């Protein structure tokens, strides 16, 4: 199933603060998942969490593109089958702080698409919590 999910949030923080929360491995672990992320094009990394129905507990990713502090693109594969999906973070400064547009697109089975659709809003709330701490 092809999907193209877009989520947009405005965080009342400077763009550099939000960028750091997206690109620092420890910060990323606190709102997304434990990882071995390095903000470098071509870096391959894993995101890990306990497995749940429909989620194997691991995503294999690669940094495809970066334009600090405005844009970062990852490939994302959360199972051993199928092609990787693409995850894009776009940041823009707005009067209220920083607009984050998260786009997750690709071709996955319908159950995985539903899981992805339900989990990103939760993760973005966790990002907000980290930024407020």
Provide a descriptive summary of the structure in words.
29% of the residues lie in helices and 40% in strands. With 133 residues, it is an alpha+beta fold. The chain has one domain (2-132): Alpha-D-Glucose-1,6-Bisphosphate, Chain A, domain 4. It has a 6-stranded antiparallel sheet.
Poorly predicted parts: none
Beta strands, count: 6
Distance between the termini: 38 Å
CATH architecture: 2-Layer Sandwich
Fraction in beta strands: 35-45%
Task: Provide keyphrases for this structure.
133 residues; alpha+beta; 6-stranded antiparallel β-sheet; 3 helices; 6 strands
Topology:
Blueprint: E1 2-11, H1 15-23, H2 25-31, E2 44-48, E3 58-67, E4 71-77, E5 85-94, E6 97-107, H3 110-132
Antiparallel strand pairs: 1-6, 2-3, 3-4, 4-5, 5-6
Nutshell version of this structure?
The chain contains 3 helices and 6 strands, in the order E-H-H-E-E-E-E-E-H. It is α+β, with helices and mostly antiparallel strands.
